[in-house]
């Protein structure tokens, strides 16, 4: 079993969400710190992004923020994050999220979080990105998205093998188990995309 050293987390910047999502984020952050895993994330100081960073910093873990310059200029960046990478734009930011990570983890979020997740799934489908993609379906948040993905397979817009692109889990403390249970993926995936 490969040791997980670095993960990227996609998550929300919204502050107006149910406290249960913040609690799930804290639990996941603590598991990652306990296992000495570096976290790469969007660099924000608000919403789940802020709670993720605050928890990792409080627990003495390592977190890296990646953010376009224009977002720093309006003070969205978390000033206490260990390391920051500032990019020219959102496209470069998404590329940097995937550099050197052992897995991608998606927490509840809005259109930005879902867009990042779906792009990662597309890149995996094409064999460009081959690491585990796990979705924290806390409190059934992603039920409708998962049903839509399954429906796209049923309707032959994707193949049955594409259901192995992602793995869902509901308990934030089971994140490492979800990563390790993910189906290995090949760069040859383009052949059956």
TrEMBL record:
The lineage of its organism: Bacteria, Pseudomonadati, Bacteroidota, Cytophagia, Cytophagales. This is Cytokinin riboside 5'-monophosphate phosphoribohydrolase. Belongs to the LOG family. It catalyses: AMP + H2O = D-ribose 5-phosphate + adenine. SUPFAM superfamilies: MCP/YpsA-like (SSF102405). GO terms for biological process: cytokinin biosynthetic process. Its EC number is 3.2.2.n1. Keywords: Cytokinin biosynthesis, Hydrolase. One of its GO terms (molecular function) is AMP nucleosidase activity. Pfam families: Lysine_decarbox (PF03641). GO terms for cellular component: cytosol. InterPro entries: LOG, LOG_fam.
């Amino acid at each position: 079993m490969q040791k997980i050293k670095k993960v990227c987390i996609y998550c929300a910047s919204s502050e107006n969400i149910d406290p249960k999502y913040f609690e799930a984020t804290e639990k996941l952050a603590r598991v990652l710190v306990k296992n000495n895993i570096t976290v790469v994330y969007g660099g924000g100081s608000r919403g789940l992004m802020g709670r993720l960073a605050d928890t990792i910093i409080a627990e003495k873990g390592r977190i890296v923020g990646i953010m376009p310059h224009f977002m720093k200029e309006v003070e969205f960046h978390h000033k206490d994050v260990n390391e920051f990478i500032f990019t020219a734009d959102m496209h470069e930011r998404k590329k940097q999220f995937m550099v050197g990570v052992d897995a991608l983890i998606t927490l509840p979020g809005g259109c930005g979080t879902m867009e990042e997740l779906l792009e990662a799934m597309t890149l995996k489908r094409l064999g460009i990105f081959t690491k585990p993609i796990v979705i924290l379906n806390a409190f059934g948040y992603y039920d409708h998205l998962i049903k839509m993905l399954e429906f796209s397979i049923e309707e032959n817009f994707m193949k049955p093998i594409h259901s192995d692109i992602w793995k869902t889990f509901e308990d934030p403390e089971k994140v490492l188990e979800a990563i390790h249970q993910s189906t290995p993926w090949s760069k040859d995936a383009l052949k059956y995309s």
